[in-house]
Amino acid sequence: MAEAEAAGGAGEAPAPAEEGAELTAVIGATVPTGFELTAAEEVQEKLGSASRISRDRGKIYFEVPARGLPQVHRLRSVDNLFVVVQEFKDYQFKENKEDALKDLEDLVKKLPWTNPLKVWELNNSLKKKKTKRKKHNLQSTASKEKLNEDGQGEGTDQKDASKQEGCAQNAAGVEPASGQDTETTQGVASRNGEEEEEENNEQADAKDELQAGSGSETTAGDSKTSEGEAKVLKFRVTCNRAGDKHSFTSNEAARDFGGAVQEHFQWKADMTNFDVEVLLNIHNNEVVVGIALTEESLHRRNITHFGPTTLRSTLAYGMLRLCDPQPTDIIVDPMCGTGAIPIEGATEWPSCYHIAGDNNPQAVKRAANNICSLLKKNENKESSTSLGIPLDIIQWDICNLPLRTGSVDIIVTDMPFGKRIGSKKKNWDLYPACLMEMGRICTPGTGRAALLTQDKKCFAKALSRMGHIWRKGQTVWVNVGGLHAAVYLLKRTWERAEEKRSFW
């Protein structure tokens, strides 16, 4: 530890586990910028762990026992997960580029890799078991359907699902060097309304793995399997850097740090088909070294049919959570696009009723297809019947909604930015008309709305004209596909909305 500090600043590493002590992990999570507090609240609520919000926007850190990894992957507000190897809160970089990069190289052999690699191995084995179980369930369902068609009985022996075992380890290219929050395309599927049996299975798997060790899984430390066959792990280093006082680029840091990792572990570098992704996050003087636990961003969990401006599910969750949905609330997304917001809402808040609509028939079709995909995903494994979700999709005109005045509790929607869909000019007419119609259907006094837009000037002007029915509360600044956007939390006043009004 003292050596690591000498390398350039105060370093914090997860405490080494004592003999017989439970393995714990410090988990880093990337979240939609602006929704760090929302993510921290979810972690506290679902995992009972306090989170620390990073100075680098869009990241939080929390500690969990390793057996809790399945619940970590089910968090709705996080995009990507990694286990922290070590964190340096005030790393002093040398001014000379060669010296600074040499310090990063020397850092590799001083880092406490053992426990984070154990967590990575456990995470990997859980992914493989989950993949095996899902394929077994698919085989079982298909076999039952075939037997029912043939008029035969239900009891039958299933083919050995272990033949189908496998876990995709492919990934996309290196992330940009800008240091902005980025989304990797590596993937661990998060739960989407899966049954409690699945959750219990994963918990049991985690417990078994911790008790039995890595077993037949690849051991990262010595790159061997239990059969004694040498298997050299493939890896890549991804560097995310932010700050203008560094003498090196992120590519240079990744290259030199990666060379030291390769020398230390004798792993093989592979930028696309890797087993281990080592993360080097540099934000001004804050340095965090980690190992990725997700291959594909968890925000891709719900959508199978994408549109031109599909919203991330993690951002949709954050917007919904801002409105604090209560049981029996009616929640409407009047401009639903591909349905990311209502699908996320129906999955996480099933005791509410969700209504989605759009004026574009193609968008409604995509949303309906996404709902069908979710229903198939939620099929009861025993009876092959859908459990259903409290969600309806309708084609309608946003300025003339077929809903009773004052009948809606919450409105959450992604408004047209005026770039890929619509235009800035059209927004000057659309925004005030939308706010008026949304004010009409929303319950006076208790109704609330979370509206996302990048056309902030137009929205502010429209809202100033609608001050009699909407009061602006919290504003959350977010990054949406590189665009600086805002989520406005509005409260419905007690005043009755007029049916027609001159806006300007």
Number of strands: 16
Quaternary state reads single chain
Shape: elongated
Q: How much β-strand is present in the residues?
A: 15-25%
> Number of helical runs?
12
Query: What's the main sheet like?
Result: 9 strands, mixed
Query: Which percent bin holds the helix content?
Result: 25-40%
What class, by secondary structure content? alpha/beta
End-to-end separation in angstroms reads 65 Å
Average of per-residue pLDDT values: 78
Order of helices and strands: HEEHEEHEHHHEHEEEHEHEHEEHEHEE
Describe the structure.
By secondary structure, this protein is α/β, with parallel strands linked by helices. Helix content is 33%, strand content 20%. The protein has 12 helices and 16 strands. The strands form 2 sheets. Strands 1, 2, 3, 4, 5, 6, 7, 8 and 9 form a 9-stranded mixed beta sheet that branches. It has a 7-stranded mixed beta sheet with strand order 12-11-10-13-14-16-15, sandwiched between helices. Strand 15 (470-480) and strand 16 form a beta hairpin. Helix 5 (114-150) packs across helix 6 (196-212) and helix 8 (313-322) crosses helix 9. Mean pLDDT is 78; it is low at 1-10, 141-198, 211-218, 223-228 and 500-504.
